[in-house]
Amino acid sequence: MTDRVIEMRGITKTFPGVRALSDVSFDVRAGEVQALVGENGAGKSTLIKILSGVYRADEGEVRLRGETVHFSHPVESLRAGIAVIYQEFSLLPERSVAQNLFLGREPRGRFGLIDTGRMRAETRKVLDLFAIGGRIDPDRIVGTLDVATQQMVEIAKAVSHEARVIVMDEPTAALNDAECEELFATVDRLRERGAAIIYITHRMREITRLADRVTVLKDGEVAARFDGAPDPDAIVHAMVGRDIDDFYAPPARADEIGEPVLIVTGGGNASLRDIDLTVRAGEIVGLSGIQGAGRVALAMALFGQEPFERGEITLNGARSTFRSPRAAIAAGIGLLPGDRKSEGLVLMQSVRDNGMLTPRAFSSLWSSHRRTAAADIGRIDDLLDRMEIRAASYDQEIRALSGGNQQKAIVARWLSMRPKVLIFIEPTRGIDVNAKAGIYHLMRDLAREGAGIVMISSDLPEVIGAADRILVMQEGRIVAEFGRGASEQDIMHAATADMENAA
Amino acid sequence: MTGSPTASRPGTGGWSLAGINPVWPLLAALVAAIVFMNPGFAEPTGYMNFLKRAAPLAILAAGQVYVITSGGFDLSQGSLITLVVVGSSMLTDNDPAATAWVIPVMLAIGLGVGAVNGAIVCFLRVPSLIATLGTMITLNGLAFLWSGGAPRGYLPDTFRFFGRELIHDVPLVRFVPVSVIVLVVVVGALAWAMHRTNLGRMVHAIGDNPVAARLAGVPVNRVRVTAFMLSGLSAAIAGILLGGFAGVSTDVGTGYELEAITAAVLGGAQLLGGRGSVPAALGGALALTAIFTLLNFLGLPQPVRQVVQGLILIAAVALAMHRRKRTGT
Fold first, then answer.
1. Per its UniProt entry, which superkingdom is the organism in (chain A) (predicted)?
2. Mutating which of B6, B9, B199, B324 best tests the A interface, going by the most A Cβ atoms within 10 A?
3. C-alpha to C-alpha distance for A473 and A421, rounded to whole angstroms
4. Which of A85, A370, A451, A491 to pair with B229, CA 20 to 30 A apart?
């Protein structure tokens, strides 16, 4: 078949101690979206890195338009027309959109000077291919654009390289719903233009919306292939090897919800206004809203990182305004940050050290690192076991673990402190389906044990599925509250209502 | 939930050749080279004198590695040594009995300077490289002012005891320098604090990721100030030893801070923080001293020593980067 742009056959790749891929075959045709799905560690990234020349396969071959190719560097694959868009963008934040698009191959004018006019015009031309791209100014400094727009620039860069194969690695991870829709439209447009698109994702909705074909990887092997967008349950079944009827944990029963543990009245600071909030023992409160609505600011205020300047917090009956995370933790609040790597983990330290970090922080500096007031090594190991963390050893550096396992290690850290209120920011971002279900059930378990849970998530179905009560924020205020059974439309409407009026 | 069968709970991650800190084979090779050129080195007189000479640097490196692991540099160590030596000669004023109170005062000065360094970094938000460069210049000036530019040439023997004296009639090795005993005690204590206490783990954590450490409740400022205080304390102890065998001058400590940083890095400490080992910093200090000893044997002039030290610093960091890349960590 000549319309197969990429064919990978019998790809096998072994790392020391791990067989990452065994005999994987995979192909993509021009003008289709091939979804590549699988849990973390299933081998998706390794496969892509072999395709783009970051790694070399131990066995098997890669064919580009029927010809066998051996890329030894990503630059070679890019020249051959394969562009990979990673979650971490490769854009230079201090340069303009146009400069980024033509980095290293700027059009030259007279005297060898860079022809900025032409560069700008050609950038314009590429951007205008896309609805959202039409709104981007080629002279804007990339660092000043939001994540979704930066991603658009990254895609435009791939297009300007005349890439015939575009790989997108979880492109919606940092996008809100509206931005996702724009991305989907962009992907549609790329498909119409005849690009072959490899789309890596965890999200069923995106597969249903976009995929022409689906390849499921599990443990380094192809677990299933589907033509057309199949039933989500079938994909999940292939990914995890079991059904997930119980994906979300059951809601709290009335008798499980107890007294208020956390009450905020009239809370405010530079980014928050008039915050009145009650979290009860045993319930999961979801915070929803668009990016910048103040959800994370509220979490950081509760946690003392960006404290309230007005109003007061009552935690378990005691009034307080936390001036630092340390004060908040001492009072019984815990927080799982949204960006694990930059805010949650000490990456060079072991899994166990990451778990022990907070117990140690609340012990004497000079006492043994193996035994602290809140927890000793044995208890942390028990908690890590309870989280079912997959690691060769708890002495292993945590950076080697998958996102889901890293997240669980942070949860274990907080469990050791027995917090009264635990705040989860984007708890399932970048982690696989199975681990997601684990996090939902864990939140429910913690609530049943008497904690109040606050969950912030940009994934609306997740908030609806996991929370007992949903608060919607907009411009630093809480503007609506929903119980169980709210629809996505209701919530989106509340999150954007006034803005529509204003506009 | 039940325990996962895939999660093992062994004590350590296991031993492999790649896991050995390269400073140890390096040190072994250097010692072999020295013994080859000078068989007398294998006698107690040879290696005990070597250890005696290496003791101040080793102690200094053991303190410096706290600051490096926490993500900073302490450039003030060398001038703190000078201040301690000059200050001790001024305060003792040839009175042998004064040693008893002058030494605690010097240790307190060391801790105090460290606390000031830490406070400047934590509360005034001055990067440690600049902050300690400032204290380095300030302390040099203070030492000069204190002595009036002409330090008295001697310290009482009671003070010089720690740096100079030997304890004789020790079985097996015939004699042990007092400074080697100080070395073992101080480095032992610093190794314990770094690798067996909450402090040590938190020093690693704040050097690794200060934001995550703060959000985990780590008292980042307290830990950072403590790291600088231990670095200052180690400089004061090194100064007391150096005063014993090097005598009094206003440049006795010059350049020691860079030697200490080189030694720590040679021991695999990660510049900008997150990784560091006191025993390996000791190994680095011994290896650096061994290199200087070899250069001496070879009859190379003093400036060569500086050239070599600079190259070692670059090579050690380059090697560390290469290993990190290769192991993918």
1. Bacteria
2. B9
3. 20
4. A370
Work out the angle between the directed axes of helices B99-123 and B77-92 (0-180°, nearest 10): 150
Distance in angstroms (rounded) separating the CA atoms of residues B271 and B269: 6
A196-200 and A165-169: which strand pairing? Answer: parallel
Note whether B226 contacts A365, CB cutoff 8 Å.
Answer: yes
Nearest CB to A368 within list B12, B197, B219: B197
B205 to A353: CB separation less than 8 angstroms, yes or no: yes
Nearest to A358 among B4, B196, B217 (CB): B217
Question: Phi first, then psi: what are they for A225, rounded to 5°?
Answer: -130, 145
CB atoms within 10 A of CB A318: 9
* Nearest to B205, CA basis, from A352, A111, A62: A352
d(CA A462, CA A204): 12
Structural domain spans, chain B: 36-254+270-276
DSSP characters for A62-119? EEETTEEE--SSHHHHHHTTEEEE-SS----TTSBHHHHHTTT-PPB-GGG-B-HHHH
Size of interface A-B (CB pairs under 8 A): 140
Distance CA A59, CA A336 (A): 41
| CB-based contact A453:A284 (threshold 8 Å) | yes
Contact A381/B at CB under 8 A: yes
Q: CB within 8 A of B315, min separation 6: which ones?
A: none
- Nearest one of A228, A226, A98, A78 to A162, comparing CA atoms: A78
Beta carbons of B82 and B141 less than 8 angstroms apart: no
pLDDT digits (tens, 9 = 90+) for A162-192: 889 999 988 887 777 778 888 898 899 889 9
Domains and CATH numbers, chain A: 4-240 (3.40.50.300), 246-332+419-503 (3.40.50.300), 348-417 (no CATH)
Is residue B90 within 8 A of residue B148, CB to CB? The reply is no
Do A390 and A434 contact (CB within 8 A), yes or no? no
C-beta atoms of B197 and A342 within 8 A: no
Question: Please, which pLDDT band fits residue A434 given cuts at 50, 70 and 90?
Answer: confident
The residues facing A194 across adjacent strands are none
Residues of B in contact with A413 (CB under 8 A): 216
Nearest-5° angle of CA B294, CA B298, CA B300?
100
CA of A405 vs chain B CAs: smallest distance (Å): 11
Q: At A78, phi and psi to the nearest 5? A: -65, -40
The alpha-carbon radius of gyration of chain B (Å, integer) is 20
Span B16-54, pLDDT tens digits: 455 688 899 999 999 999 999 989 898 888 899 999 999
Identify the residue among A360, A368, A390 best suited for mutation to test binding to B, counting B beta carbons within 10 A and taking the highest.
A360
Element (H, E) at B219: none
Report whether A450 contacts A465 (CB < 8 A). Answer: no
Contact B1/A at CB under 8 A: yes
Q: Are A367 and A458 in contact (CB under 8 A)?
A: no
Identify the CA nearest to B263 among candidates B279, B287, B291.
B287
Residue B144 has pLDDT above 80, yes or no: yes
d(CA A312, CA A485): 31
3-state secondary structure of B178: helix
Contact B274 A303 (CB under 8 A): no
| Chain B residues within 8 A of A347 when measuring between CB atoms | 208-209, 274
Q: Rounded distance, CA A43 to CA A167, Å? A: 15
Out of B204, B208, B212, closest to residue A343 by CB: B212
Quote the DSSP letter at residue B272: T
| DSSP character at residue B166 | E
Interface test with A, best of B197, B198, B220 (most A CBs within 10 A): B198
Mapping DSSP to helix (H, G, I), strand (E, B) and coil, where does residue A57 land? coil
